[in-house]
Protein 1
Amino acid sequence: MSTLIIKNLYAEVDGKEILKGVDLEISGGQTHAIMGPNGTGKSTLASVIMGHPRYTVTKGTITLDGEDVLEMEVDERARAGLFLGMQHPAEVPGVTNSDFIKTAMNSRLEEGKSVNLFKFIRQLDKAVEDLRMNDDLPHRYLNEGFSGGEKKRNEVLQMKMLSPKIAILDEIDSGLDIDALKVVGENVTNMKSEDLGLLLITHYQRLLDYISADKVHVMMKGRIVKSGGMEIIKRIDSEGYDWIKQEVGIDDVRVIEEEEEARVMLGQCATREALDL
Ligand code: ADP
Ligand code: MG
């Protein structure tokens, strides 16, 4: 059983502070959910845990079973057992889905060892069937031309194949119709075990109808402002977030306010133009 501990985490992007003191502890066998309106820092937290180079941690710690995660490169984090199912998975033309997964699995083994090809294919076929994906998806370029729902299922496919110790699924429900949501929910639920700690990020309560959570956290303004059980979700579902905003005395839940957000975006466009991207 593994434990991920995040303490007083602060992080910034382009000099803007996005995470403002996040505390969270996830162990194998547990499922945590982070909810919260858009722009409150949920995906940023996921990216920072995985080590996305755009984000700078300015304060706080992240450890996995006592090891300093912030000291690890992205690939080391993956090898240590961290996994992120992304909100917006990138398209990688030229690399097939199946090759991508195989490479990721091999990189977790000792130098010189590789996965048994026969077993790999059998496992992949089974996972594709379990997720009711199209047979051709493993052989197509990673995420290229995948529908929104296919991309999401594909993140879960990777998770099934990689058996992480701690898995973060960021808005895995967005873009899924109700049937697909059911399939994804069943598959994730079947993966639950003492060896897996799950963090589900979502802003819809409906995901949690399919994957139950032991603990629910609400994120606003770059930190977790409330934690509790499923009762929080029920109340958010019927009343929205206003009661929590009132409870913690927050007006605008976003980390960056609208005007500022526009300036950051303009800054990015200007940078892109300057770099001729
Ligand atoms: P959520 O997932 O809760 O919707 P995010 O973590 O995606 O929120 O974003 C929180 C804030 O941080 C937003 O204002 C967003 O624009 C900003 N932000 C996140 N990542 C970046 C980035 N790479 N560049 C600029 N701003 C970013
Ligand atoms: Mg997000």
Note: The first strand starts at residue 3 and ends at 13.
Protein 2
Amino acid sequence: ERREAARTARAPVVLPDGRVVRVEANVASAAEAAAAREGGADGIGLLRTELLWLGRSDLPDEDEQVALLRAVLAELPGRPVVVRTLDVGGDKDLPALHLDPARSGFLGERGLRHGLAHPELLRTQLRAVARAAYAHDGEVGVMAPMVTFADEVQAFLAALDEAVASLGGADHRRPDRVGVMVEVPAAALAVDEVAAGLDFVSVGTNDLVQYLVAAERTLPAVAHLHRPDATAVWRVLEQVVRGATAAGATVAVCGNLAADPQSARRLVALGVGELSVPPPAVAAVKAALR
Ligand code: PEP
Ligand code: MG
């Protein structure tokens, strides 16, 4: 019976109209990637690399980054994995970077903002992703967090092109899909501009909701304002799906909203084709969609 349940969890979700919805997992380690596979995830929709690096006092060099990424990819043979570039600042600290708290808060130099301010760090990570992708027999995506404007997307794409070109004859593969997170209201409301030239966008509802309702995601005192059914949030989500689709990008949702079965159904009804949730939530989300 357990084997039957596992087989059901692994099967893809096919809607009555034939559309396949991918239910993937958010992970931060090879152990979580294994749990995601066991739990029936169709892939990894969000690999939080800053957490992959956690627990060390120094920064991993390029070779170490490649090894860390390969260990995660090896858990999901044949399946798609989206690697997110470093998302530091806000609620995510990385002691080795010695971030200045006055500068890297929730409204500060977070995510891609930090990456563009430290091009060597971003370049090394993009090289590591391209090298790790070489050995994976599934699709590899790369995406940037905390994007606000289209010119940042262009800078990210240029950094990726440059990093890949710099690898020359070394074993590597340019990521098959390139995207960004949509988690800043300005990016959500102008997603047609932000998504231009991208393969996908992935909506980070944890941050998007925090910024829309002006309530820090880490503060229990205002947690009640993070309502999964907030009218404003759904109006923005609807616009994101419409705008990104018109721009030719597919839409994923990787925030915790996607793990709420009711919301997952609503997202899919809007046209979202890819949900990424914590590994233990994969089976329940698939069941809700079925
Ligand atoms: C989000 O913001 O919704 C998200 C998925 O990213 P993180 O929780 O890592 O900020
Ligand atoms: Mg986020």
Note: The two ends are 19 Å apart (CA to CA).
